[in-house]
Structures are given as structure tokens and as C-alpha cells.
Amino acid sequence: MVLSKVTDRPIVIATRASRLAVWQAEHVQDLLRKTYPGLEVSLLKLSTRGDEILDRSLQKVGGKGLFIKELENALADGRADLAVHSLKDVPVVMPEGFTLACILPRAEPRDAWVSGKYASIEDLPAGAVVGTSSLRREAQIRRRRPDVVVKPLRGNLDTRLGKLDDGQFDAIILAAIGLQRLRLESRIRMILPVDLCLPAAGQGTLGIEVSAGREDMVDLLMPLACQRSTAVSIAERAVSRVLGGSCSVPLAAHATLQSEGGELIAADAGLDSITDAGILVRALVASPDGADVLESSVFGPVSQANQLGEQAARILLDDGAAQLLQEHLQDD
After folding, report:
1. How far is CA 153 from the centre of its chain?
2. Where in this chain does the record put each Porphobilinogen deaminase C-terminal domain (predicted)?
3. What is the pLDDT of residues 215-246, one digit of tens each?
4. What is the percent of the chain with per-residue pLDDT over 70, rounded to a whole number?
5. Can you tell me the mean pLDDT for 96-117?
6. CA-to-CA distance for 221 and 200, rounded, in angstroms?
7. Is 69 domain-assigned?
8. Is 3 exposed, middle or buried (0-12, 13-18, 19+ CB in 10 A)?
9. Percentage of the chain surpassing pLDDT 90?
10. Which partner for 226 in 50, 105, 200, 327 could form a disulfide, CB atoms 3.0-4.6 Å apart?
11. Cβ count near 118 (within 10 Å)
12. Gap between the terminal Cα atoms of the chain
């Protein structure tokens, strides 16, 4: 691709300083360099409050927005042009002054079961300790195994694995993609099927944020965007938006592109497949103990991804999701 005016100067990518976050930013850096040969792209590594506060759960200290605020400050004051995020950490309602400019191809969206002793959740003995700080994961694990103990697990990926290895937990649950990106696939005992643990909205996907009005950056990122990933992400984030989704809510949303016959459309399918595809949206809301679970699923044209996500959420609301979520917030 021919260099344009926007690529005549170095581009700065803001990122968290964790090993996984840096991998993700370097991935975008490589994509930009391949798309625009000769382009200078550097990283601005920042520590966020979400990385620094490890003794309390996210829902008690401000939610997932803690992971992106410092990066947005760098965008606002001109230190950075782009910020790379795990899409599941990006608020479904973007803060004023910022926009989600690009969604990259989705990788593995499911969760991973990690344990040195037990191959699956079914193998756990009663009273075994499972580590996760995700209310979504906790609710679904306790739904299947109410006889196990779920305890908070914070820290970066290496810290979490270290706590497992130290014997603090019998098993932990992590996003599979994080392990895969850092070449730690050998730690995965199994990928949890979505029927057991429905993923979070945006899990496995990278989003790139820019300051509002930076049309030059939007144009720069256009070749990196993925229509398939954008469609499913729009649907998933619509579920979360209608239900007030955040890390303080036990909420899951997962969308897939499918043919009319119900066959899953491969990630590398041609763009013509999207035009004719349907999108299946699954949503779940639960109490943290997994005792009360509401689920919905809707299918329709991919062109209506946002409406289908909203519809899946409203089905849950009609079934009592608002009361379930309110009861959880009061208990919390």
C-alpha cells in the first residue's frame, strides 16, 4: 500500500506494560508495518490502575475501565495515536472524546481450564479450590459444580499461573487466547465448550481506540479491520450495553456467523459469505452462585447484528434479568 500523508510521521501505540498487552500491541505494530512498508511505529508502555490494584476484585475498585484510562489520557494529550485493548476490557459505551476505530480478526474466544492435577471440571473432588476473579466464570462453574470453592485470582498471566503452581488453587480458568499468544498452550488441559462456560463479550478480539475526530487514524486502520469479527463483536457488545454489562455483572454474550443451515462459517471464509450469513447470538445472566441462570439465543441476518444483540438481551430482561442483577448488586 502506498504511503499517505498520515504515514509520513511516526505512529505511537499506547499499551499496558504487561507481557500479554505488549504482545498485542506488537502484533498491531507488525500489521501496520506490513500494510505500510517504511512506516515508523513505536510503543508507549504504561502502567494502569487495573494492573496496580491486585488486592481487591475489579468490581470493587472501578471495573475494567481501570485498564484503559491511562491509555486514553495518552491519546488525549497527544503522546499516542492509537491504543490497543482486549475488546472485552473496553466499555460498551465509549467515553466522550474517544472512538473504537478498528476491530481485528477474532482469535479463540473461549475459556481455558488450567490445572496440574485435574483434566476437567468433572474430575474435581468436592471442596476443590478454583481460581477466577470473573463473576461470569464463577457463576457458570458453580452452576455445574456447586460443591467446589471459587476464590479470587488477580494479577497478570504469569502471576496467576504461579499461584496455581504454588498450590493455592487446584485449577484456574483463564482466557485461552492469552495462553496461546504467549506460547503457553501446554498449560491448557481443555478448552471449555461454550455450553459449559459462555465467553465474555469481545473475548479473543483486539480493538483499537483513537481520539474522536482522528479520521486520519481511522483511515490508517481500515485495512486491518475484519468484517466477520466486527459483526459478532457488535452483537455481543449490544447484549452487554442493554444489560448494563461490566465486570460487576455475571453476564456472558457470544455470537457466531452461521449459514441458514446452521453450519458455522469459518474465520477465513470469504467476504461474500458474510453478506449471506446469519448470526447466532447467545446471552446469559446468572447469580454469582450459579443457582439462578437465564439464557437466550436469537438468529437473524448479519446486517442486523446490533438489533439481534439487543433482542437477546431483552429476552433476558423479560425473563427477569433486571431483578436478578439488582439482587446481586444489593448483595454485593
Report:
1. 17
2. 233-317
3. 999 999 999 999 999 999 999 999 999 998 65
4. 85
5. 97
6. 25
7. yes
8. exposed
9. 78
10. 105
11. 17
12. 52
Q: What is the mean pLDDT of residues 208-213?
A: 98
Enter the C-alpha cell of residue 318.
423479560
Q: What's the average model confidence in pLDDT over 178-182?
A: 97
Domain range for 245 is 230-331
Number of domains in the chain: 3
Compute the chain's Rg from CA coordinates. 20
With cell 457466531, the residue in question is 256
Residue 140 burial (CB count, 10 A):
26
pTM of the predicted structure, to 2 decimals: 0.89
Using the 3D structure, point to which of 191, 213, 247 is the last residue of a domain: 191
Torsion of CA 318, 323, 326, 331, to 10 degrees: -150
Q: Which residues of 219-233 are buried (b: 16+ CB within 10 A; e: fewer)?
A: ebbeebebebbbbbb
Model confidence pLDDT, tens digit, residues 26-50: 999 999 999 999 999 999 999 876 5
Q: What is the DSSP string of 20-37?
A: HHHHHHHHHHHHHHHHST
